Amino acid sequence: MDGTLRGLAALVRERQPAVVLTGAGISTESGIPDFRSAAGLWVQYDPMEFATIQAFRRDPVKVWEFYSLRFSVLTAAEPNAGHRALAELERRGLVQAIVTQNIDGLHQRAGSEDVVEVHGSIRTASCLECGERESLEEIVASLRETAAPACPRCGAILKPDVVMFGELLPPAAVDRAVELAREAGVLLAVGSSLEVYPVAGLLEETVSAGGAVAIVNRGATPFDGLASVRIDGQAGETLAALAAELD
Prior knowledge:
Layout: H1 5-14, E1 18-22, H2 24-27, H3 41-44, H4 47-50, H5 53-58, H6 60-76, H7 81-91, E2 97-100, H8 106-110, E3 115-117, E4 120-126, E5 133-135, H9 136-143, E6 159-162, H10 171-183, E7 186-190, H11 202-208, E8 212-216, E9 229-231, H12 235-245
Parallel strand pairs: 1-2, 1-7, 2-3, 7-8, 8-9
Antiparallel strand pairs: 4-5, 4-6
Helix pairs in contact: 1-12, 7-12, 10-11
């Protein structure tokens, strides 16, 4: 198994198309806390109280209080060198698409165009009663006056368009992610512990179809043994160096 930047660049160059799977580790470098680390959000907040669909139906105001605390961080966060490097590689035709577990929209803000959000997005909220959808800007404005945003059409409390525990992942996004993984010459996983299914299973889809896997992450993952290249490093620094190496 190669652990060098040169090896990663060669893999991306030679095993096209390249698809990238990103996790929380790329966004923590923009100041957005993750969920599962020792300093993650689930250490401070019980996910069963704040992140399940049952919790939302039981007490949507309490769930919105949790998300309101995150909005200030999410709206202030800026794409980092890793996001920008991936957008540049997409423009150069070296990255086909990004499959992300993140809900923050930083890939799109960095300029990436083909982004598959398998865990939903904080950029919108929807009404479970009538289907009305509001943008993040409208939600933030509403939260200045009320504890939970109401649907402008029917008055029900809107739900953040993130996938909560107890909800299915969006079928269209999952289908596209699986299709991309099966067709990838190389699937590059960045900043993900690769512990959450079904997304972690995308690496097995790639390998089963004859593609290669590369992993860039701080710390070990359950899929390190599948990787042709494994780099233990920061997402931003590594991806920026990768873009330079491929220039």
